[in-house]
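2024-03-11 09:14:02 DEBUG pipeline.ingest accepted 1 chain
2024-03-11 09:14:02 DEBUG pipeline.ingest length=323
2024-03-11 09:14:03 DEBUG pipeline.predict start
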Amino acid sequence: MSAPLIEATGLSKTFTSRGVFKRGRAVQAVRQVDVALAGGEAVGVVGESGSGKSTLGRLMLGLLPATEGTVRFDGRTLDKIPRAEWRTLRRRMQIVFQDPYGSLDPRRRVGAQIADGLAIHGLVPAGEQGRRVGELLTMVGLDPLQAKRFPHEFSGGQRQRVGIARALATSPDFLVADEPVSSLDVSIQAQILQLLGELRRDLKLALLFISHDLPVVRHLCDRVVVMYLGRVMEEGPAERVFAEPAHPYTRALISATPRLDPGKRTKRILLPGDPPSPSDPPSGCVFRTRCAHAIEACAGAVPALRAFGEARRVACIRAEEIA
């Protein structure tokens, strides 16, 4: 892999809930995560709800302050950048939100919302913003004349295209797509995913794609990061991880994925119980309370994310044994 455009090292985030009559509880949403993306690379982040995927994306964008660890973008550490320089940096980092209904202002025409980034960053003179908005709408498969419409006049898929156009208005280098198709019909999902794939290749975007849909990640991404209870369980090339999952949690996730080819179906691995509370995680390996391969040593220490085969890392002390 070429030099990373954006790199997170030892990234952790702890939230503290506040109660009126009782003491607040610490929730460890992300714990000691390392991840890096090169320009033009797509990295998928998968895991159950509450695994810390969205929090990781917001930490890498600088939308949330990290409790521990650092994020470096284009060689600069985010928390060391002066406030006066953040506007320039923000132009290069954008996000596509999950909800195409709630992420747009219903009272404003979509063209004006797409043009916000152009005006804020002074990228295009006022007299040329309409032309640029038309180009962006064309880029995402919409008619430039639709710039005069309000969000309620679009379908869900069209609204997500508008959201993508708004994110691309500032010509970013790094894009976080946080569950961008989860609220759309299956047929529309395929169109949006194809669009994101084409834009990523054409614009050389570093894309962090957050999803719970494993087939989508396998199709779209170069590498995949598997998270559970805030920690990375496995990381590596998407095809290799999906073809030969090494961590018991990755195996369980993949076994639950529907397959169209009856000859390639695998036995479903059912995980007992619910994920532990992030405010009271198990000692040692956080997955051990639901793992069929857990032994006494799994409770002793947090397993390091170590090399496993070529270009892959796994956080499991028994990975080689159970492979």
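2024-03-11 09:14:41 DEBUG pipeline.report The longest strand covers residues 26-37.
2024-03-11 09:14:41 DEBUG pipeline.predict end
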